[in-house]
Amino acid sequence: MPFIQLFLMFFRIGIFSFGGGYAMLPLIFQGVQEFGIMTSAEFSRLVALSQVTPGPIAVNAATYVGFQYTGFFGAFAATFGVALPSVILVILTMHFMKKFQESKGLEAVLFGIRPATVGLIASAVIFLSENSLFQGPLFSKELIENIKEYVNLLPCILFICTIILAGKFRIGPIKLTILAGLVGAFLIR
């Protein structure tokens, strides 16, 4: 029975998430909380692990969650569940592409989906910030009152450096991920 629950949870996530893996993260976290599989800190580590392993972040996260919950078959059920909607939607899209290529209705739907996708990605950024840069919920009175005790300085510096190196110097994400991992490994020991 847990395999069916995992499959259905990730199928739902796969079919209702637009915008890729980062847009799926809040939904995956919500599902993980429903199952009671892992804490916020563990989920934050899962996201980091999903980033450094090859493949789409949503598939990596689903595989990890499924494996944590029920082992190999849970990993298979979760991965199949999150990937199947994309396969179905691509097949259907290709079938109807020519018919609806210049449809005003389709343009209107996509116009509405785009800002929601940005919102979901922003939600993932806030979630990851809470668990990576700060030691508790973002936007709380505690943050303002106890800023020195609340902010993790090293992750904030890494965050700012990553933005500068990626934006200004166009250093690729793989190099930045490896560099950040090395900095963390040497400075946090």
From TrEMBL:
Topology versus the membrane: Multi-pass membrane protein
Annotated PANTHER family: CHROMATE TRANSPORT PROTEIN-RELATED, CHROMATE TRANSPORTER
Transmembrane regions: 6-25, 73-96, 108-129, 149-167
Signal peptide as annotated in the record: none
Family designation: Belongs to the chromate ion transporter (CHR) (TC 2.A.51) family.
Lineage, highest ranks first: Bacteria, Bacillati, Bacillota, Clostridia, Peptostreptococcales
Primary residence: membrane
Domain of life (superkingdom): Bacteria
Keywords: Cell membrane, Membrane, Transmembrane, Transmembrane helix
Alphabetical list of Pfam families matching this protein: Chromate_transp
Cellular compartments per GO CC: plasma membrane
GO molecular function: chromate transmembrane transporter activity
UniProt-recorded name of the protein: Chromate transporter
